[in-house]
């Protein structure tokens, strides 16, 4: 949905009243896909909360309680990051005074009654504090590397300390806390093979710079390729993304393949393309952007050029902070195409209306709270302004 609203994905299918209107940034509060996404995220939060509650009751010393809870809290942090990114903040972006939050549930719903009573939206600041607390716990209690995995399981399928560090850096960048973003990104160990590797296409087991990815199999399938290729074929690359690639960019053949599709998700029969949640490329570009924002242009250029060189491009010609950051945002768009990043980059840099000038209604920079949440709680969960 976030790639549809950013126009990096073009809607070409039949679900006009749901995905189609999202592609035009005209979604209403009764849009079923927006409602389903809100619901799915809160289901994930409730599962994490339940695991945390129940694992607290396990006293067996053989049970790795701290690392198990750290993984659950990383998941919960990611869920709240996505909720804030879609429905929270202000029309300018994130981390501004008066930023809107979402209902903050940190205990599970196990029975009908007080646990299921409606609660109002917390402030953006309160949700941000919960996200930071979860990621701090994860960073303190997760191992840096995975051990004793079966040969068929990619290491990136498991949440590690590096994934939590990268997510914390992502969150601080989003909240415009650039010094903190730089600090956390620099804690992620350098991937020594990165500069000599080439842009990776998803394989059945791994993305070549994945720090953490969602794993799928023939018995636990996703619908990425199904929606792009065979089956529904609802999506094509957006009309502007091909032209956004500089001449010689190796990513063009991946992002906009022959026939107007993408090679990131192709396994429509087995439906086991992994989905990258955190990649090392993001760490590199976070260091670059945070360095540029804090005045270290030399570091910003060095890091930016790592990504450019890996993709067959010459070194950047940008010399000012604003030009370097503009190049970084472009590289992020092309590097993470169809991975759900570009819309959040536009929002956090307050450039939605610049990049997408037909989006004149700035209140739509935030998604509408699903109608059923407002209606069934009699307004306890307040709608976003002007919807």
Automatic annotation (TrEMBL):
<dbReference type="InterPro" id="IPR012944">
    <property type="entry name" value="SusD_RagB_dom"/>
</dbReference>
<keyword id="KW-0472">Membrane</keyword>
<feature type="domain" description="RagB/SusD">
    <location>
        <begin position="262"/>
        <end position="355"/>
    </location>
</feature>
<protein>
    <submittedName>
        <fullName>RagB/SusD family nutrient uptake outer membrane protein</fullName>
    </submittedName>
</protein>
<keyword id="KW-0998">Cell outer membrane</keyword>
<keyword id="KW-0732">Signal</keyword>
<dbReference type="Pfam" id="PF14322">
    <property type="entry name" value="SusD-like_3"/>
</dbReference>
<feature type="domain" description="SusD-like N-terminal">
    <location>
        <begin position="27"/>
        <end position="172"/>
    </location>
</feature>
<dbReference type="Pfam" id="PF07980">
    <property type="entry name" value="SusD_RagB"/>
</dbReference>
<dbReference type="InterPro" id="IPR011990">
    <property type="entry name" value="TPR-like_helical_dom_sf"/>
</dbReference>
<comment type="similarity">
    <text>Belongs to the SusD family.</text>
</comment>
<dbReference type="InterPro" id="IPR033985">
    <property type="entry name" value="SusD-like_N"/>
</dbReference>
């Amino acid at each position: 949905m976030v790639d549809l609203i950013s126009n990096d994905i073009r809607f070409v299918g039949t679900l006009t009243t749901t995905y189609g209107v999202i592609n035009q940034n005209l979604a209403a509060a009764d849009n079923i896909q927006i409602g389903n996404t809100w619901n799915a995220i809160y289901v994930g939060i409730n599962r994490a909360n339940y695991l945390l509650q129940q694992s607290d009751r396990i006293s067996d010393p053989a049970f790795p309680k701290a690392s198990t809870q750290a993984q659950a809290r990383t998941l919960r942090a990611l869920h709240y990051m996505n909720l804030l990114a879609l429905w929270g903040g202000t029309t300018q972006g994130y981390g501004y005074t008066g930023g809107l939050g979402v209902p903050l549930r940190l205990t599970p719903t196990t029975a009908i009654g007080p646990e299921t009573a409606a609660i109002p939206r917390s402030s953006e600041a309160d949700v941000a504090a919960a996200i930071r607390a979860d990621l701090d716990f994860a960073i303190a209690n997760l191992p840096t590397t995975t051990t004793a995995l079966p040969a068929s399981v990619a290491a990136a399928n498991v949440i590690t300390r590096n994934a939590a560090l990268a997510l914390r850096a992502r969150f601080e960048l989003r909240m415009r806390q650039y010094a903190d973003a730089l600090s956390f990104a620099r804690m992620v160990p350098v991937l020594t093979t990165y500069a000599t590797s080439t842009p990776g296409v998803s394989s059945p087991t791994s993305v070549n710079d994945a720090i953490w990815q969602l794993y799928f199999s023939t018995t636990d399938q996703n619908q990425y390729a199904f929606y792009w290729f065979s089956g529904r074929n609802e999506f094509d690359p957006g009309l502007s993304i091909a032209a956004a690639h500089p001449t010689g960019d190796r990513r063009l053949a991946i992002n906009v393949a022959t026939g107007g599709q993408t090679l990131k998700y192709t396994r429509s029969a087995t439906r086991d393309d992994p989905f990258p949640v955190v990649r090392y490329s993001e760490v590199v570009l976070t260091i670059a952007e945070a360095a540029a924002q804090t005045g270290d242009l030399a570091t910003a250029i060095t890091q930016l050029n790592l990504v450019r060189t890996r993709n067959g491009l010459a070194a950047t010609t940008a010399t000012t902070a604003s030009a370097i950051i503009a190049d970084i945002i472009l590289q992020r768009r092309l590097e993470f195409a169809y991975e759900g990043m570009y819309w959040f980059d536009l929002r956090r840099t307050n450039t939605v209306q610049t990049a997408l000038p037909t989006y004149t209604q700035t209140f739509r920079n935030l998604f509408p709270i699903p109608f059923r949440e407002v209606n069934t709680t009699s307004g306890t969960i307040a709608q976003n302004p002007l919807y």
